[in-house]
Design a protein that fits this description.
Length: 271
């Protein structure tokens, strides 16, 4: 706290100068003892005031300085504490970033390995799929060839074939198709129903027959196409080639075209 002290400098100088100037002067010009005592007391009071003022000022300045130093130290400690926390968090962040970088590097390596393996496996899978299609076509061809001698009879009532389906087909089929007597009788190697038994009121199960040779089977199919309406006790029945399911689905796609061709053929025949 600033202290304004008015120092009686001029008065002190005048007193000292008067003492010096009084030396050697006549007695009438000298001050009396009372005047000298008064001047001496004033000078002493002024000197004491001048010397005590700086002491009070230094103590207050020291107190303020101590407070400022303490505040600076406290601020420094607080700043250091916060800075240490920030540095610690920064180090942890750096550590985590390093771990993340390592994990990302490992992930990139694994992804690269997987991509390489995927490319190799894709080539292998493509080759296997191609090979599988070839094998499927071969199996389908073999299945179709194994059914070349087969004929599917549809809508024949259940039980009409009796206990011996082969004998029934051999005797009934030529008459139903109005076939001329053949030099070699029709021989059915095997005949049976397919699928589980059906309930009352449901359509009968198809009957599969296998001829001994393909020529007899081909003759029967030609006669069936010529006959058009094939009957069993006034009930219309039909004969179809026995085909694999895949081949049947492929042929099913051309039903509309086949029907159109048949319609055009019959219209042309009518003209």
């Amino acid at each position: 706290m600033p202290i304004n002290v008015k120092m009686p400098k001029e008065k002190g100088k005048t007193t000292i100068q008067s003492k010096l100037s009084d030396f050697g002067k006549p007695p009438e010009q000298k001050l009396s003892k009372e005047a000298n005592a008064s001047v001496s007391m004033e000078t002493t009071s002024a000197v004491e005031t001048y010397t005590e003022a700086p002491v009070v000022c230094d103590s207050e300045l020291k107190l303020v300085k101590d407070e400022i130093l303490k505040a600076v130290v406290d601020l420094k400690e607080e700043f250091n504490g916060k800075l240490n926390g920030i540095l610690k968090a920064t180090e942890e962040t750096k550590k985590q970033l390093g771990e993340c970088a390592n994990r990302i590097g490992q992930a990139e390596m694994r992804i690269s390995t997987i991509e390489d393996d995927h490319g190799t496996l894709k080539d292998v899978v493509d080759k296997l799929e191609k090979r599988n299609r070839v094998l499927e076509n071969r199996v389908l061809d073999l299945e179709a060839r194994s059914r070349l001698n087969n004929v599917r009879l549809v809508n024949l009532p259940e039980g009409a074939e009796g206990a011996d389906p082969c004998s029934f087909i051999e005797s009934w089929l030529p008459d139903a198709l109005d076939m001329a007597p053949m030099r070699v009788p029709i021989v059915v190697e095997k005949a049976h129903r397919i699928g589980p038994k059906r309930g009352t009121g449901e359509p009968p199960r198809p009957l599969i027959m296998k001829f001994l040779n393909y020529k007899q089977k081909d003759s029967v199919m030609k006669a069936a196409r010529a006959k058009k309406d094939m009957l069993y006790k006034n009930l219309k029945v039909r004969l179809y080639n026995d085909l694999p399911t895949e081949v049947h689905k492929q042929r099913k796609k051309y039903d509309s075209v086949r029907q159109q061709l048949r319609a055009d053929y019959y219209l042309g025949a009518g003209e």
